[in-house]
């Protein structure tokens, strides 16, 4: 599959000439790792049967090729989309590498997603299969996937890892073209429906190699996958792919909690881990209390949401590790503080881009022609570069506003740049709530609430939260105030529609009218801003 919104020829040529796009593909990455690091451990962790596994690169390569053959036997073909809906288990790597080896395209769902999201991914990507587990997090994933398969015509197979994966004689890896789409990643989203992000071998693997370099990864690296493996941060910044590029070892954590993870750090000799700020906070608190011996831990990466400077300052002393701030997005651009940056950069900024050819423009969010603000001033961040998409998958209408005419992605983030080119994230203009790194599109949740027969209208806003940074608050206008559903009913209603728990509003407030937001036509944005403001004033 090729990109619907390809990089212009001139840009593609420039990225190749600069040595960013090398022509390396996913199958090449695994083949190289198996050749150069065959006997080294690739992944360590508890499998779907809770048995401890430790697979070398040679073993992982063999498993991937057998699975590719098994999938082919079921009729899965190169170019087909397959929704991967798995927790952090070693088999996660087996499955994604089996798909890459076959040339099928993973669609990376999160373990927290539920039936309605999986159904949507399957429909939108016309997936032929879903790979999942029987049960995870007290939820019957396999049953949900089977219901989806019954309804969505394209889905022919539901593969349940703990029931056994298909296998065959090791397949010869596929040979995709480097500008083919390698997979579909998920966007946090700002609209009613999540967007899918097409990433090519060339663009993504450039970001992976460069990230591994920036983070100083070596064959001695031991990376703890504490956040969901499918998240772009865990996958590629430098993540499990960066570690595999370097020949290091991925440790899969069954849960991100500090008991589990700090023990794994000590037992497995973890050198680097990636977390969101609320998780960093609980790890730090646990370490401050118990002073565990974590001699191997060199780097704690914190990203996905803003890491406040107070939390940032506690990380080094508590964990004995260097903090690295990471400001990235599944659409592309990733910024890192560098490991040798001075404290003021590491504690107070979200770092600078991977590539000299990442273009960052900071513009007045109210300017119709995207006028740049003065250097150092706050504005909306637009970006373009060698690993940032030029358009979402099958979303021409949304693309018309999400990208500028000259191909810059509107990140929706408010930032300023310091004199050293480091980005400081100060807020956002997009209609999204960042719930401790989990992204919630206000409109998506509003649509779920409005599906309730007794609801006339709903507006979902982010309100400050000490632990998560933000949490969600839904204002609901009932059709008939005398027969208004209760907040608990409405939260249950949203959950029962089969959406990820993190999208269920943290609080629901039933109101008789939305506050006036001035004269004339009220936009959703103004309404949400007024409601968020009202909440802040109440505090
Ligand atoms: C403030 N906001 C941040 C940060 C992301 C690496 C790291 C994170 C992601 C990710 C990723 C932030 N401070 N340090 O894909 O490769 C918010 C911004 C951004 C959005 C992207 C990676 N780090 N954010 O979080 O696609 O609002 O990617 O635009 O999930 O998260 O979200 P997502």
Automatic annotation (TrEMBL):
Region of interest called Disordered, as start-end residue ranges on this chain: 518-539
Compositionally biased intervals (Basic and acidic residues): 523-539
Domain AMP-dependent synthetase/ligase: 31-393
Pfam families for the chain: AMP-binding, AMP-binding_C
Domain AMP-binding enzyme C-terminal: 444-521
Cited InterPro entries: AMP-bd_C, AMP-bd_C_sf, AMP-binding_CS, AMP-dep_synth/lig_dom, ATP-dep_AMP-bd_enzyme
Descriptive protein name: (2,3-dihydroxybenzoyl)adenylate synthase
Source organism per UniProt: Actinomycetospora atypica
């Amino acid at each position: 599959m090729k990109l619907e919104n390809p990089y212009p020829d001139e840009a593609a040529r420039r990225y190749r000439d600069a040595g960013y796009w090398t022509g390396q593909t996913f199958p090449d990455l695994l083949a190289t790792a198996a050749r150069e690091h065959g006997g080294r451990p690739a992944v360590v962790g508890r499998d779907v049967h809770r048995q401890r596994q430790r697979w070398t690169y040679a073993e992982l390569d063999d498993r991937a090729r057998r699975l590719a053959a098994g999938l082919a036997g079921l009729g899965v073909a190169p170019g087909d989309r397959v929704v991967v809906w798995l927790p952090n288990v070693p088999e996660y790597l087996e499955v994604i590498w089996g798909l890459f080896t076959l040339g099928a395209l993973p669609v990376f769902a999160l373990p927290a997603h539920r039936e309605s999201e999986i159904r949507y991914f399957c429909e939108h990507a016309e997936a032929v299969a879903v790979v999942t587990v029987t049960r995870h997090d007290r939820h019957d994933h396999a049953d949900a996937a089977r219901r989806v398969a019954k309804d969505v015509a394209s889905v022919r197979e539901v593969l349940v890892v703990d029931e056994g994966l298909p296998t065959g004689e090791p397949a010869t890896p596929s040979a995709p073209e480097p500008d083919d789409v390698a997979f579909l990643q998920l966007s946090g989203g700002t609209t009613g429906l999540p967007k899918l992000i097409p990433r090519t071998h060339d663009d993504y693997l450039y970001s992976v190699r460069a990230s591994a370099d920036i983070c100083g990864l070596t064959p001695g690296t031991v990376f703890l996958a504490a956040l969901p493996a499918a998240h772009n941060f865990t996958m590629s910044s430098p993540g499990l792919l960066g570690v595999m590029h370097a020949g290091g070892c991925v440790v899969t954590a069954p849960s991100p909690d500090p008991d589990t993870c700090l023990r794994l750090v000590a037992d497995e000799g973890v050198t680097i881990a990636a977390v969101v700020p609320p998780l960093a906070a609980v790890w730090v608190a646990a370490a401050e209390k118990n002073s565990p011996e974590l001699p191997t831990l060199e780097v704690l990466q914190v990203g996905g949401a803003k890491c406040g400077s107070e939390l940032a300052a506690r990380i080094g002393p508590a964990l004995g590790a260097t903090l690295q701030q990471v400001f990235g997005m599944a659409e592309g651009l990733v910024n890192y503080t560098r490991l040798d940056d001075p404290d003021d950069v590491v504690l107070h900024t979200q770092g600078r881009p991977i590539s000299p050819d990442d273009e960052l423009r900071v513009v007045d969010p109210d300017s119709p022609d995207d006028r740049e603000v003065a250097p150092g001033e706050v504005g909306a961040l637009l970006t373009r570069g060698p690993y940032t998409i030029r358009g979402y998958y099958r979303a021409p209408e949304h693309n018309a506003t999400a990208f500028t005419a000259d191909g810059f992605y509107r990140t929706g983030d408010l930032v300023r740049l310091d004199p050293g080119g480091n980005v400081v994230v100060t807020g956002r203009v997009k209609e999204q709530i960042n719930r401790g790194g989990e992204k919630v599109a206000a409109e998506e949740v509003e649509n779920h609430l409005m599906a309730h027969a007794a609801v006339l209208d709903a507006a979902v806003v982010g309100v400050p939260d000490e632990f998560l940074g933000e949490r969600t608050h839904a204002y609901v206008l009932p059709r008939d105030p005398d027969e208004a559903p209760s907040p608990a009913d409405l939260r249950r209603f949203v959950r029962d529609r089969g959406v990820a728990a993190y999208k269920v509003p943290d609080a629901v407030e039933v109101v008789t009218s939305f506050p006036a937001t001035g004269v004339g036509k009220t936009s959703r944005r103004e309404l949400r801003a007024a409601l968020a403001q009202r909440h802040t004033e109440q505090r």
